From TrEMBL:
Name the UniProt record assigns to this protein: Uncharacterized protein
Amino acid sequence: MTLGFITTDVMIPEPSDAAWPKWAGYAVAGGAAAAYLYSGDYIDKMTREINRIKERSLGPPGFVYELVATKNGPYPNLNNGGTINLKVGDVWKYGQTTKGFVRYSDKDLKAKGLEMIPLPPGGYQMEILIQEKYYIYGYYFLHGHRPPGNPIFR
């Protein structure tokens, strides 16, 4: 309904068309309506993926982690092949591991300006795969894109 109203109003010229607050309001309302309409597709996709994971065996114990920026500046954006400016503490990637802190060497993390932070609650592999999905999709729903270090919803 919101998108239909905006489309109709755009097609019929009137004096208020010159007022920028009107168009700013339409941008916010239209963006929110589009996000609502299209987020359902991603919620369905996430649900299907989680249901498939639940069919697996539990697997070994592990935890979900986030790789966060340790310095301000450009970081690789694996979603588009470019770079993105992050601030200290910004999430670059969510992942899961059953190998603990040996997943990445301290030297590699430091060279890339990243820190690995475990996220609660952890569990068996099947459980942490589901937790990882929640973190990645949650980031997407909040920011409108995946974390720069997560090129897919894995």
